[in-house]
Fold each of these.
Amino acid sequence: MDVKHIRNFSIIAHIDHGKSTLADRMLQITGTVDSRQFKDQILDDMDLERERGITIKASAVMMKYDYNGETYMLNLIDTPGHVDFHYEVSRALAACEGAILVVDATQGVEAQTVANTYLAIESGAEILPVLNKIDLPSAQPDATAEEIEHILGMKKNYCFKISAKTGIGVKELLDAVCELLPPPADRSGEPVAALIFDSHFDEYRGVICYVRIFAGKLTVKQKIKLIGSGKIYQILELGKFGPKMTPVSELGTGEVGYVIANIKGLSDITIGDTITDAVQPAEKPIPGYKKPMQMVFADFYPGDDTDYSKLRKAFEKLSLNDSSFSFFPQNSPALGFGFRCGFLGLLHIDIIQERLERENDIDVVQTAPTVSYEIVTTDGAVKKIDSPSELPDVTQIKELREPFVTLEIITHTDSIGGIMKLAENRRCTLIKTDYISQTRVMLEYKAPLAEIVYDFYDQLKGISRGYATMDYKFTGFEESDLVKIDILVNKTAVDALTLIVHRSNSEARGRKIITKLRKAIPRHQFEIPLQVAIGGKIIARETIKSFRKDVTAKLYGGDVTRKMKLLKKQKEGKKRMKSIGSVQIPQKAFMSILDTSD
Amino acid sequence: MDIDNIIENIGLYVHIPFCRSKCRYCGFYSRPVEDYDVERLIAAVITELDNCNCIGSIQTVYIGGGSPSCLPEKSLLRLIEYIYNRWKNIEEFTIECNPGQVNIEVLRKARKLGVSRISIGAQSFDHAELEFLGRTHNVGDITNAVTQAKNAGFDNISIDLIFAIPGSTILSWRQNLMRAIKLGVPHISAYSLSYEDGTILKQQRDAGLFAPVDEETDRAMYELTEELLEQAGFEHYEISNFARPSFRCKHNMRYWQNKPYIGVGPAAASCTGNQRTKNIADIDKYIQAVETNGTTAQETINLSAADIASETAVLNLRTADGINIEDYRQRHNLDICNVFAGPIERHCSLGLIAREKNNIRLTKNALPIADSILCDFIID
C-alpha cells in the first residue's frame, strides 16, 4: 500500500482510562473483528492481563478504514499503562508517527498521563488528545481539557470527546487519525530498515519479531541481517496482525507486521535492533527506543531444593517472553541455591511470580525486593551491587551511593498534607508543587528508589483514599549515609534478610523488622531468638516462644484417613517455608522486612 | 462392608449409632435411640456381618458408638451372641459402656458370651465438668459401673477421661486422676478435650462463650497424667492411652500397627489390603442398602504403596514402641532410616525422636507436639 494511506499510532493512557476499550471499539467499527466473536479487550492476550485489567505487553493490530472514499491501513500498536512498563510504551512509540492520548474525563489528568505524554513528545509522535467516558454523568470534559492544556501544554479546543464504551465520537476519531496524523516518510527506495519493537516466543516457530518497516521492504525468503548483533537469518514467513497473524509475501515501507526467520531464542535478538538486507544493508540502524533499566531485585528460591532445575527452566521460559526480566544463579548460605532476578518495578515482580506459579506449579520463596547500590571502594573503583549481602566490609568502602528517582504524584488538594508527611518519612525532597486545577495538584519529588519500592504506592493510595497516582523516573546514583542491617534468626545471620538502610532510621527499622518477624514466623518446637545487628553489634532482640501442644488426642480406625489428610496439609505448609538451620521461615517473613506500615 | 475372602487375622469394629443424648463434644455419628427401629438396625448389622467372608479370622472385637449400652438388652445380646457363635478364638472382645447405663445382668450374660473387656466413658469425676460436656451420668455412676463390671466377672476394664475442660485446673485434674487410679482399673485413656468440626462445643468456643484451657496448662495436665499414672504402675503405651502390663487394648493396637480391620454398622470404617472404606453415615440409608443387597460403603479410598507406608509410620509413632525398623522393612520393603533420614536426624537433634537399635520412637517431649513431627513421616 501507498505510504500516504498508512497510519501507525499508539494509544497512551493512565491505567483504567479506557485504552483497551477504545482499541476494542476501533476494531469493531473498522470491522477488523466480527462482532459475534468479539471478546472484550482483544489486545490483552494473556489471562493475567485480562484478570488484572492491565496490558503488560505491547501488541499490534492492523485495521482497514475507509475515509473520504479512500482506504487507509491503520496500525494500532498497543501500550501498557503501568508505571513499571515505560520501556514498553517507548518501544511502541518508536514504531509510530502518532499517538492518541486518552484521558478519563471523570478522573482528569493522572501521573501516568503525564509520564506517557512526555514519552510520546520525546519520541516525536503527533499527539491527539482525547477525553473519554463523556457519557458518564460525572464526566467533566471542560475541566479535564483545562488540565490537559495547563499540564501538558496542548490546546484544549483540540481535545476529542468520546465514549469508548458506547462508541460516541470514535468514528470521528478514526477520521482524525487519517486526517491529522502524519503518514510514514516514503523511503521505499532505500535499503530495507525495520525496527523490532516487540517479540514473542512460539514453541513451534521460534521467535516472532514484531516489526515496523521504516525504509525499503521485506520479502519472504530474503536473507536478513540484524544490525546490532550482526547475525544473519532467512525470512520464513512475513505477516500482518488482523488481529490474528496473517501471512503476506512482503512488508513495505511504513507497514507493521511480523517476521519469522528461524530465530531460536529471544536472547538472540534485541528489541530495538534493526533488520536490514544481508546483501545490501542499510547504513545506519533506526534510532531505537529507550532500553529498559532493571532497578528492583529480588531473590527467588525453590520451596523444595529438588525443584532448582525446574525453577531454572521456568525462568528460561519466562525470559523468552519478557526480555526485561533477567535472572542469574545465586547461592545463599541460608537459603541454598536460587536465583537473583532483576525487574523493572514491583508490579513486574508480581506478574513474574504469578506466572511462575500459574504456569509451572513450583513453590517459590521470594525475598523482599531491594534496589541496586553503587559503592566506591577505598582503591577508587566503582562497583554496582544488586544485593545487600554483596556489600563488602565497611573498611573497604569509601562511598555508598543509592539510586534516586524523580517522583511525580497527582492528587486531590485535601490529601496533600498526608502525602507530604509520607514523602518526608521516606526521605523525599519536594522539588515542585504545581496546581493542575483548584482541587488537584501535582507534586514532584526527588526520592530514594529504595524508599518507594515496596509499599509506598499502597500507602499513597491509602492516604488519598485511592485517588492519588504516581510515576517515577530514575535520575542517578548519589552518595548516602547507608548502613547494613543483619537479622539473626536463632543466632544465625540470614543473608536473605540483610538490608541496606539509611542510618537515620536504621535502628527503628531493625526493631520493626524483628517485631514483624516474630509475628510472621510460626512458633516452633523450640524457642527462637531474633536479633538485629548493625556493624556486628546487637541492637535489639525478640523471642518466639515454642509451641507446647500439637497433637491429635484420639486416633482410631475411623479417623485415619482424615488425619492423614490433615498431616499432609501440615507438611505442605512446612514445604512452603524455608529452613534456616532448624527454623522454618515462611515467605511472608521475607516480605515483612520491607513492610514499613504499622 | 464389602469384603471377600479375608485370610489374615483381622479386627472387627461394630458401630452402634445410638445415644440417649448427644454430648456436646462428640463428633461421632450417633442419633437418638428412641427415634429408630433398633431391632431392624441390629438385623442389618448382622446381615452385613453375614456377608463378610471372614470365617475364623477375627482376632479382636470392639463394639462402640454411640453407646452400645443404650441398646435394649435383647438387641445387644443378639449381636454379641451372633459374634460369639460365629467366631472362635477371639482374643479380646470389648464393649463400650456409658456409666449411667450399666446393668449387671446384661454384663453377666455378655461375659458368658465371650465379652472380655469393658470400656467405660467416665470422662470426669467433677460434676460441673460432666455437665459442661453434656454427659447425663453423675460421678457416683462411674464407681458403680466399675464395681458392677468387676462383679460381673470383668478384670479388663478401661475408663476414658477428658482433661483440659474449660474451667479445670491442674489441681482439679490431679484430683480426677487420683480418683481414677483409686478405681483400680488396669486401663485408662486420657484425652485432651478436642474441638471437633460440627460439634456444639466448637461452635460455642468459636462464638466466644467460654475460654478454652490455655496451651501451657493443657501441656502441664498431659505431663501430670503421665507422671501420676506411671507412678501408679501404668505404662504410657500410646499418646492418650495408659495400661498396666498386659492390659494394652489389643483392638486399638491394631489401628496403630496399621493392621487390617473391618467395620460394620453405619459410619463404620474398614481398612483391608490397600483400601480404606467408610460406611454410609445415615441409619435409614444404611439399613436400606443392606436390605436391598446394595453396597454399604459411602467412600472407598485406594491407597498407594507410599500411602500405606506413610500410614504405618505415622500410626506406629503414636505408640511407645514406635516403628520397628525390621518389621517396617519387611512390610513395606523400605528402610525407614533411609526414607525419612532428614526428619529423623532433625528431630533426633532436637531430642524429639529416639533412635534405638530396633526402633524409631517419639520421646516424652515429643508426645505433646506429636503432629508437628508425624507430618514429616508422609511420603509424597
Note: Confidence is low (pLDDT under 50) at residues 1-5 of chain B.
Amino acid sequence: MNEHELNFHDLAAGLPARAIEPLPTDLWPRIAAAHVARRRQRRWRRVTTGGVALAVIAAVVVSAFGWRHTAMPVTDWQARAQALELQLDALPLPATSAPMARLAESEIANLDSSLQAAYDRGAARHDIDPLWQRRSELLDALLSVRRQQPVPVRI
Amino acid sequence: MNDKPATGFAQDVDAMTLARAQHGDMAAFAQLYQRYARACLLLALRLTGQRQAAEDLVHEAFLKMMDTIGSYRGEAPFGAWFKRLTANTAIDWLRRQRHLATSDADELLEHAVGMDSDNAGLIDADSLLARLPPRARAIVVLHELEGYTHAELAALFGQSESYSKSILARALKRLQALATSAAHASKVAL
C-alpha cells in the first residue's frame, strides 16, 4: 500500500467496532448541578466585585474631597485683622469721620469687647475665629472709606 | 443521496432548543446532552484512550458549552461547533497531563505500544488507536475521523503543517503494522 493512500478508515475496515458502555446515568445531573453552582458563584462574584468597586469609588471620592477640604487654605483671621490694623494706622487721620466709618468703628469696638470676653472665658478656636473674621471685614471696609476721605492739608 | 439518519456530532438541533439553551434553559441543555453526549464521549475516548478521563472530559466539555453557547452565532452547524469545543477541551487536557510534552516525531512514535499475541486477536479500531502515543493518536483521530486539516492541526499543536503530515504518515504506518500483526495473530489463534 502506498504511504499516501494509507488512511485510518481502510485500516479499521476489517476490525470490529468497539462496544462503548453508556455514560453513567448520574453524569447529567452532576453536570447540571455544577453548571448551576458555577452560575450562582459567578453572579455572587459579580455582586461582590460590584460592591467592592463601589466601595473603592466611594473611598476615592471621600478621600479626594477630604484632601481638597484639608488642602483649602485656612485664613488666619487674627493675623489678617492685625495686618489691616497696621495699614489703617499708616493712613493719615481724616478731618471728619464718615458715617460708615463711624458705624464700623463702633462695631469694631463691640467686637473687641466680645473677643476679650471670649479669651477670658477660654473659648474654643471655632468660637473666636468668626469674631476675628468679622473684625477683618470691618477693618477692610474702614480702610476703603478712609482711602476715599479727603486728607487735611498741612500748611 | 444519503438517506442514513445523522449520528454523533452530525445530528442537527432545532432553532428553538438552541435559542432556549442560549438563554440558559436547563431543559434545553438536557436535550443537547441527550443528543451529543455519546458523540462527545466517543471523541474524548479516542483522544485520551482512557474511559475515566473521557467521562471527565464530557463533563468539562458540556460545562464549557453551557458557558459559551451565547457566543455561538450559527456560522457552522451546532454539532460541528460543539465537536470543536470537545476536541479543544481534550487537547487542553492532554496538554495539562503533559501527554503532549514530546514533539519530536521520532521520539513520539518510539512510545507506540506493540501488539502482544495474547490480546492481538481481540483488537478493534479504537484499541488500535489507543496503542499510539497521545499526540500521534490525536492527530490521527482529528485528521482521519474528524476532518481537521493539517493547517488546523498545526495551529492546535503549535507546530508546522509538515510536522502534522509527518506524524500522521508515520502513525498510519505504525497502525498498519499493528493491524497486520493483529490479523496474523488472529489467524494463528484460529
Note: The two ends of chain A are 136 Å apart (CA to CA).
